[in-house]
Amino acid sequence: MDIEGAVAIVTGANRGIGEGFVRAFIEAGAEKVYVGARNTADAAHLVDNFGDRAIAVALDVTDGAQVAAAAEMCSDVSVVVNNAGVFTDRLLIAADDMSGARQEMEVNYFGTLAMCRAFAPILAANGGGAIVNVLSAAALVDIPNMGGYGPSKTATRFLSAGVRAELADQGTQVTALIVGSVETRMSAHVKGRKEQPIDVGRAGIKAIRHNLDEMDTDWMATKVRASVALDPKGYERRLAELLKADVLDTGR
Ligand SMILES: NC(=O)c1ccc[n+]([C@@H]2O[C@H](COP(=O)([O-])OP(=O)(O)OC[C@H]3O[C@@H](n4cnc5c(N)ncnc54)[C@H](OP(=O)(O)O)[C@@H]3O)[C@@H](O)[C@H]2O)c1
Q: Is the pTM of this model over 0.85?
C-alpha cells in the first residue's frame, strides 16, 4: 500500500510513539493525519507545525461515543494506527486490586478492538486500507514485573490475527507491530538503549508498504523473538529469576 496521498488516523498521537507516527506519515507524504488525543490541546504543537495536514481529534479509545464520533469525522481514512496504550506498573498478585490490569485491557485491548470495529466499514469503503496495532516485545514473552501489560498486548496480538482474517475479504491488511524499548514517557523509568519514536513510526510505515502481518521494529524486539524461539520456557524462567533477584530494571 502507498502512503503518499493516504489519510491516516493515529490514536494516542499527542506524544511518544503516536507523535512519531504522525511525523513519519507526514515525512512519507501522507495527505493528512488525524491526531487522536484525549485532550486535543495536547496536539496543538503538531497542528501548529503541520497546518491542515494534521487535524486534532478528541479520542479516548475507551469512550464508545468518542470512537463513533471520530469514525464519523474521519470517513476518508485508509490507515488506522492503534497506538494508544497504558502501562500501569502494577503486579498481577501483589497489587491491591485488579484495577491496573483492567485498565490495561480496557485501553490496550478493548480500545484497539473498538477502533477496528468502528473503522472497518470506512476502510472497506476506501479500498481496503491498513490497520497497524502497536504491540510490544511483552506480547512475545511475559515480562514478569510488568503485571497485566504483557497479557493485554498478547491478547491484542491474537486480536490482530482475528481481525486480519475477518477483514481479508474487504482487502484490509493488519500489521502487529512488535516494539522493544523506546524513548517515551511510558518508558522513562527504563534504563538502557532506547529507540526514537519516529523510527518506530518509520518501521510501521515500512510494514504497511510491504503488507507485513507482523514486524519487529528494533533490535530488542528481534532479540526477544530469537530468545523465545531458541528456548521458550528457559527464557521465561530466566526473566522470572531476574524479577526475583529484583535486577530486571523497569524502575520498580
Ligand atoms: N515506550 C516503549 O518502550 C514501548 C515499548 C513497546 C510498546 N509500546 C507501546 O507504544 C504505544 C505508545 O506508547 P508510548 O511509549 O508512546 O507511551 P506514552 O508516551 O505514555 O504515550 C501514550 C499515549 O497513549 C495515550 N492514551 C492513554 N490512554 C488512552 C486512552 N484511553 N485513549 C486514547 N489515548 C490514550 C496517551 O494520552 P495522554 O497524553 O492523554 O495520556 C498518550 O498519547 C503503547 O501502546 C505502548 O504500549 C511502548
A: yes
